[in-house]
Design brief:
By secondary structure, the chain is mostly beta strands. It has 2 helices and 18 strands. It has a 15-stranded antiparallel beta sheet that branches. It has a 3-stranded antiparallel beta sheet with strand order 2-1-18, with no helix packed on it.
Length: 221
C-alpha cells in the first residue's frame, strides 16, 4: 500500500511540476512570435505594423489629469525587427514610421481652430520589448524624441515642438496591443498657445507581422 501511495504521490508531484513549468516552456522560444505565445519566431527584418485600437483615440493633453489638448482617431506605427532573442529577453525594433492623420485630429484648446499636421521627428527610434511586457522607446544617441504640431489659431498658424527623452509602454497578449499612458513631453518651442507640457496616451492594436501571409498578430513571450 505504501508503494502505491508513494507512486501516486510521485505522479502528483511530477504533474504539478510540469503544470508549473507550462508558462516558462511557452517562453522557451523567441521573445516575439506569431501563431500564439511560444509560437513561430518573428524573423529579423520583419516589418511590424499597428494602428490605433478600434474605438480609441491618441491624445496629447496639457496635464496628466486634464482633458484639454489634442485628440486623434487615426494613427499608426511601422517598425522593423532588429533582434529577436530567446525568451526571456528583450527584442529590439527600429521604429521607422509613426504618423497621425491630421484630418482625424481635433483640439479643444481655447484659441485653436484646428490641427494642420502632427509630425514625429528624428526617426528612427529604437523600441525595446521585454518578455515582461515592457516597451521602451528611445531616440538615437545625441537626439531626442520629438513631435511638431502645427495648429490653426485665431492669430494664424503656429508650430508647437514637444520633446521627451524616452517613452515607456506596455505590451499585452490579450489583444496583441502596445499602450502608452500619460507619457510626458515638454514644450521645446512655440507660442503661448502651445501648452507647456503634453501628456501622450494611445493604444495600438493589434500589432501584426506584415511580412508574413495574412499578417498574423504578434505575441510577446
Amino acid at each position: 500500500m505504501r508503494t502505491r501511495t508513494s507512486l501516486a504521490l510521485a505522479a502528483a508531484v511530477t504533474a504539478l511540476a510540469l503544470s508549473a513549468a507550462g508558462p516558462a516552456s511557452a517562453a522557451d522560444g523567441s521573445v516575439l512570435t506569431t501563431g500564439g505565445a511560444g509560437g513561430t519566431a518573428v524573423a529579423t527584418g520583419a516589418v511590424l505594423n499597428s494602428s490605433l485600437a478600434a474605438g480609441t483615440s491618441a491624445t496629447l493633453y496639457s496635464s496628466s489629469t486634464g482633458t484639454s489638448g489634442l485628440s486623434c482617431t487615426s494613427s499608426k506605427f511601422v517598425a522593423s525587427v532588429v533582434d529577436n532573442p530567446t525568451a526571456p529577453g528583450t527584442a529590439t525594433e527600429s521604429v521607422t514610421e509613426h504618423t497621425f492623420d491630421a484630418s482625424s485630429c481635433t483640439s479643444n484648446v481655447i484659441g485653436v481652430l484646428g490641427v494642420t499636421s502632427i509630425k514625429v521627428d528624428n526617426l528612427p527610434y529604437t523600441s525595446a520589448v521585454g518578455s515582461d511586457g515592457s516597451v521602451t522607446i528611445t531616440p538615437a544617441a545625441g537626439s531626442t524624441i520629438q513631435t511638431t504640431v502645427v495648429l490653426r489659431t485665431l492669430l494664424g498658424s503656429i508650430n508647437c515642438v514637444y520633446q521627451a527623452p524616452s517613452l515607456s509602454g506596455t505590451a499585452d497578449n490579450a489583444d496583441n496591443s502596445i499602450s502608452f499612458s500619460k507619457q510626458q513631453f515638454t514644450k521645446f518651442s512655440g507660442s503661448s498657445l502651445c501648452f507647456s507640457n503634453g501628456f501622450f496616451t494611445a493604444k495600438y492594436a493589434p500589432v501584426t507581422d506584415t511580412t508574413q501571409t495574412d499578417s498574423p498578430v504578434v505575441f510577446v513571450n
